[in-house]
């Protein structure tokens, strides 16, 4: 077992002194970064600034117990901690402030996140995992208040999983589960539900997690007393305090932000509880100051009175730290020993200012050099066009007069010049056009890459293996197919685990995991509480640490509870780190064509629009669902797989190669050929569309039915357009609301695949009413598209074009 800070603090006075002065120096450097960062924003060199001044001492103390292999999940105030664990330099701090797109200079996000959002790179350039045990790890920060908390739970639980789960390469992710997950959150954000849900789950699961609450008494301008039921979060959390002999609850430690020795002790004790006993710990850091206020958007003088501002000046952590150093003395072997003098600390202060200024200057020069090189590569080419259009010189003069220039200004100049010279054929214009295409591809990579995996393991690269059937293939309930497939998955992939409400003991509510917990144990097949946001968070955190979690959200409607985490966190992991981190979670859920207001929602359009970055797979039966699980476990993309809830008891032929066959993503399937109209659908609605297609045959209409199978990615080879080219009519049928998923599908087919060229009739969408269905089968019939609805509306297309052959029904 790893040693803790308490167990390793047997050092000489000289080493002790050096450590103190190093901490003071780092604190001063961090503070000067905050001061200079604010000035850079207010002078127009950066867009926005939010800094960690006032929190230097607790973060220095936290960094001392943060070891290789540990993870942090935090928000935008932890620059001192990031400095202390070598995840940040002065130069990279300012590179992020300027939005420098160089991964080398700004490795946290390559300029994609505003300042204060930290991350370490977990992946090599090819998307493979680094040895996370050889570095200190920061999971990429997000701004949404308390949004970092659910992921924290998963990062901590991974340590508990690794105590009993090993696989080839697992030594890159854990040393027998001895790692801690550290979380940080502002005091006001503890009013958010994600905080309470995460802490509750951590206390129930007993995972090694330390949550630091930075309590400065305000949530921007709103004082703490208006944030929660109790102003003191420690008092409010007292019921969570674990009792001796019980395996529930957490430890709560309260400490002042300006008391350096108390902070060291607090974090040493917190580490000991978490690392040696696998107990969650809350470190409530009180009396935090915020010398520059919340951000560069305003001044805290607007809402803090003179008494509060005076107190903050007196109890600034660095000032109190300096006082403590100057007042410290100890007698050793008859000699009085001190840590430092006024002159020594003044020298450190001055050196910190110089170091920060030097780093800022270098970061600015590097950033400006990129802009200068870009401008120099195109300006002569634009100049060459002046003879072809008089407006070009005006554009150049406008560009030259700009006081502060950015890439967008260069591109604006080039594009205006190309617009002005449209229709002109010249070598000069061709040169500019060629250069524009070249630099646009570079910036496209800077700003739009890595929304999905770009590695060799991306889902699109997984080869299709078709299901194999024989005379001995059995007809079984659909739930048996998916259950037996999971059995093969758990046997084949020891790093795979599933968890959710009722997923363990009873084998999920539809028996798709029947017997799996008994066979593979409670660690790998686990029940959870009713808490969807943190079920997702468990998946994100575990996946960031090399496990392959399947996070089960019991019903599709319930995905709304974790949609914020899907949208803000999971969907953006690869993008916001420019390929530096990944979290290949599989979200398992079930739905479609259900009955009643609370179990019949189809929030597919919400998922599609809010979760770009996550694959959305909508199999029409359980065999297809099983194939998608097999595909995604070979991929490093995250995905949501929506099983058909009304298909578990329907008979399917079980493939002989269960656990091996795959369903390719982004590939449609033509399930019925036809020549008159193309019907496009997905999920449970497919069965009803097939029924309608048979009815249409009886009235002389030959319908081709297409199951899209995969909404993201969508029909990568544009096979639907080929179908429309043949039939000349298109109908999109969907159980989502009008203008929902059907609008997305229509846009993909008409705009991206340009199938409008082949239409002889207006494209038609048949969707649900805009309300949720009433209860029972009649509710479904009158609320969502029925076979009767489909037949009549599709028939009407043919009535319109040939009323004699297809006379009106009504």
Draw up the topology in text.
Elements: H1 5-8, H2 13-42, H3 56-64, E1 71-73, H4 79-84, H5 90-97, E2 137-139, H6 149-162, E3 181-186, H7 193-205, E4 209-214, E5 218-219, E6 222-223, H8 233-236, E7 251-256, H9 260-277, E8 281-286, H10 306-314, H11 317-327, E9 329-332, E10 335-338, H12 342-383, H13 391-400, H14 407-420, H15 427-448, E11 475-477, H16 478-492, E12 496-500, H17 516-520, E13 525-527, H18 532-544, E14 548-552, H19 563-568, H20 573-576, E15 586-591, H21 604-610, E16 615-617, H22 622-632, E17 639-644, E18 651-653, E19 669-672, E20 677-681, H23 685-698, E21 703-707, E22 710-712, H24 719-727, E23 730-737, H25 741-752, E24 764-768, H26 776-783, H27 787-801
Parallel strand pairs: 1-2, 1-3, 3-4, 4-8, 7-8, 12-13, 12-14, 14-15, 15-17, 16-17, 20-21, 20-23, 23-24
Antiparallel strand pairs: 5-6, 9-10, 11-18, 16-22, 19-21
Helix pairs in contact: 2-5, 2-11, 2-12, 3-9, 5-12, 6-7, 6-18, 12-14, 12-15, 13-14, 14-15, 16-22, 23-27
Domain Transketolase-like pyrimidine-binding: 476-650
InterPro entries: DH_E1 (IPR001017), THDP-binding (IPR029061), Transketo_C/PFOR_II (IPR009014), Transketolase-like_Pyr-bd (IPR005475), Transketolase_C (IPR033248)
Protein name: Thiamine pyrophosphate-dependent enzyme
Q: Categorize the overall geometry.
A: globular
Low-confidence stretches: none
Biggest sheet layout: 7 strands, mixed
Distance between the termini: 79 Å
Overall mean pLDDT stands at 95
Assembly of the depicted chains: single chain
**In which order are the strands of the major sheet placed?**
13-12-14-15-17-16-22
Helix content: 40-55%
- Count every helix, treating DSSP H or I runs of 4 or more residues as helices: 27
Q: How much of the polypeptide forms β-strand, as a percent range?
A: 5-15%
Radius of gyration: 30 Å
Structural class: alpha/beta
Organism: Chryseobacterium gilvum
Protein name: Thiamine pyrophosphate-dependent enzyme
InterPro entries: DH_E1, THDP-binding, Transketo_C/PFOR_II, Transketolase-like_Pyr-bd, Transketolase_C
Pfam family, one: E1_dh
């Amino acid at each position: 077992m790893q040693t803790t800070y308490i167990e390793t603090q047997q050092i000489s006075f000289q080493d002790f002194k050096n450590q103190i002065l190093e901490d003071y120096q780092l604190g001063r450097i961090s503070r000067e970064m905050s001061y200079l960062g604010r000035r850079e924003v207010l002078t127009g060199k950066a867009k926005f600034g939010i800094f960690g001044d006032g929190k230097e001492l607790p973060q220095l103390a936290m960094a001392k117990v943060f070891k290789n292999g540990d993870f942090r999940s935090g928000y935008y105030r932890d620059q001192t901690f990031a400095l202390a664990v070598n995840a940040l330099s002065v130069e990279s701090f300012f590179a992020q402030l300027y939005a420098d797109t160089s991964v080398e200079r700004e490795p946290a996000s390559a300029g994609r996140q505003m300042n204060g959002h930290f991350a370490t790179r977990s992946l090599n350039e090819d998307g493979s995992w680094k040895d996370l045990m050889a570095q200190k790890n920061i999971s990429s920060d997000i701004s949404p208040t308390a949004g970092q908390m659910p992921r924290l739970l998963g990062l901590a639980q991974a340590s508990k999983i690794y105590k009993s789960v090993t696989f080839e390469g697992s030594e890159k992710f854990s040393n027998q589960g001895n790692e801690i997950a550290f979380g940080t959150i502002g005091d006001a954000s503890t009013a958010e539900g994600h905080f309470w849900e995460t802490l509750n789950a951590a206390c129930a699961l007993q995972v090694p997690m330390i949550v630091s609450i930075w309590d400065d008494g305000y949530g921007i301008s709103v004082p703490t007393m208006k944030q929660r039921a109790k102003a003191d979060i420690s008092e409010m959390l007292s019921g969570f305090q674990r009792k001796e002999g019980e395996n529930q609850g957490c430890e709560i430690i309260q400490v002042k932000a300006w008391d350096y020795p108390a902070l060291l002790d607090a974090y040493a004790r917190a580490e000991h509880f978490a690392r040696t006993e696998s107990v969650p710990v809350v470190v409530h850091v009180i009396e935090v100051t915020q010398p520059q206020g919340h951000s560069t958007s305003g001044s805290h003088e607007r809402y803090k009175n003179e008494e509060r501002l005076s107190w903050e000046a007196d109890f600034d952590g660095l000032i109190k730290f300096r006082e403590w150093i100057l007042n410290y003395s100890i007698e050793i072997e008859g000699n009085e020993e001190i840590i430092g003098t006024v002159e020594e600390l003044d020298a450190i202060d001055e050196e910190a200012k110089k170091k920060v200024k030097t780093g800022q200057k270098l970061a600015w020069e590097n950033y400006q050099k990129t802009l200068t090189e870009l401008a120099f590569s195109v300006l002569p080419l634009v100049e060459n066009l002046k003879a072809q259009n008089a407006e070009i010189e005006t554009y150049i003069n406008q560009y030259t007069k700009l006081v502060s220039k950015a890439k967008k200004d260069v591109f604006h100049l080039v594009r205006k010049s190309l617009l002005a010279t449209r229709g002109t054929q010249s070598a000069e214009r061709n040169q500019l056009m060629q250069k524009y295409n070249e630099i646009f591809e570079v910036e496209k990579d800077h700003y739009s890459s890595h929304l999905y995996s770009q590695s060799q393991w991306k889902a699109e690269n997984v080869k299709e293996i078709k299901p194999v059937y024989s005379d001995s293939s059995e007809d079984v309930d659909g739930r048996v197919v998916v259950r037996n497939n999971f059995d093969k998955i758990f046997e084949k992939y020891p790093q795979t685990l599933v968890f959710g409400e009722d997923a363990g003991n009873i084998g999920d509510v539809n028996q798709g995991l029947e017997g799996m917990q008994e066979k593979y144990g409670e660690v790998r097949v686990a029940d959870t509480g009713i808490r969807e946001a943190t079920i997702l968070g468990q998946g994100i955190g575990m996946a960031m640490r090399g496990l392959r979690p399947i996070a089960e959200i019991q019903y599709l409607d319930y995905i709304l509870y974790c949609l914020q985490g899907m949208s803000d966190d999971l969907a953006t992991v690869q993008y916001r780190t420019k390929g530096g981190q990944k979290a290949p979670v599989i979200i398992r859920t079930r739905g479609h064509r259900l009955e009643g207001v609370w179990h019949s929602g189809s929030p597919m359009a919400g998922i599609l629009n809010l979760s770009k970055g996550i694959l959305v797979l909508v199999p029409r039966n359980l065999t297809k669902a099983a194939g998608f699980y097999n595909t995604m476990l070979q991929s490093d993309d995250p995905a949501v797989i929506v099983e058909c809830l009304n298909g578990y008891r329907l008979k399917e032929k079980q493939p002989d190669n269960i656990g091996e066959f795959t369903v390719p993503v982004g590939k449609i399937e033509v399930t019925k050929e036809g020549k008159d109209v193309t019907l496009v659908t997905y999920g449970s609605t497919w069965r009803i569309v097939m029924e309608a297609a048979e009815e249409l045959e009886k009235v002389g209409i030959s319908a081709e039915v297409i199951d899209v199978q995969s909404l993201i990615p969508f029909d990568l080879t544009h096979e639907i357009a080929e179908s429309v080219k043949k039939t000349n009519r298109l109908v999109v049928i969907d159980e989502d609301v009008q203008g929902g998923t059907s609008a997305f599908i229509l846009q993909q087919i008409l705009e991206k695949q340009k199938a409008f060229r082949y239409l002889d009739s207006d494209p038609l969408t048949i969707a649900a009413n805009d309300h949720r269905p009433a209860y029972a089968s009649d509710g479904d019939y009158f609320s969502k598209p029925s076979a009767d609805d489909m037949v009549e509306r599709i028939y009407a297309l043919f009535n319109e074009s040939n009323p004699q052959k297809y006379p009106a029904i009504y």
